[in-house]
Amino acid sequence: MRIKTGFLCDGNSPRCFASFLVFVAIMLALTPSVSGADYNGVIEKGWEDRVRQGIFYVANSEFERGLAVFDEYIKAFPQNPGGYFFYAAAVQEKIQKFNKTDEFHRFFKYAKKCKKVCRKNLEKNPNDIIAKLYLGGIHGYIGLIEVKRRNMMRAFINGVDARKALEEVVKKRPEIPDTYFGLGLLYYFASRSAQKEGGMQGWFVRKFILHGEDMRKEGIEATLKSIEENALAKDYARASLMWMRFYEGDY
């Protein structure tokens, strides 16, 4: 049976599934829970349903409808990095799904705006954890685009920036379990990639993203922790843990 993800690719290969999980991890980590307790401030009050609707459009390949929603959000809250993040993420999904390389310019336009707002907010308040989450997320998406453009050094640099941001979120707000899921995916699948690629490329992944180590074990442990602590994305974490254990021969 083919799995129609509607995100990065369509298919049932481990690579497609892993790409889908990366998208889910980032989007769920940046989407408030029902209570909003752990994600207060991520989405402006009163806009939760509207932003979710935009994400739904993107998930169903109605990209321009989703982008229109995020454009509304940007106009309403230009100093919130969320609108720029969701806009750039939607464009990235469009690029991946349809190989729309002519959309690179639009992606970087909004990705740069997201980074600019995040950094401005962090200058005002270095402890702004929401800005740190969005900054880590946008670095992750930039990394994906740079891989597609075969700018591997830039991809690695953005990968390590994403890791640093997420690890800082864990340090400052360890009670947010979904962050462990994001790190678990990064640690495990980056470790597999480094092992598979080998050579200089594998060395760069280990050096700049994995603290110089094979972090598959840490990836599994972080993913398991997110499940045990009732992460918002725990069902997806269970699915990723299944793949990790399959790869490790731990059935």
TrEMBL record:
Q: Which InterPro entries match?
A: TPR-like_helical_dom_sf
Its name, as the record gives it, is Uncharacterized protein
Which Gene3D superfamilies did the record assign? Tetratricopeptide repeat domain
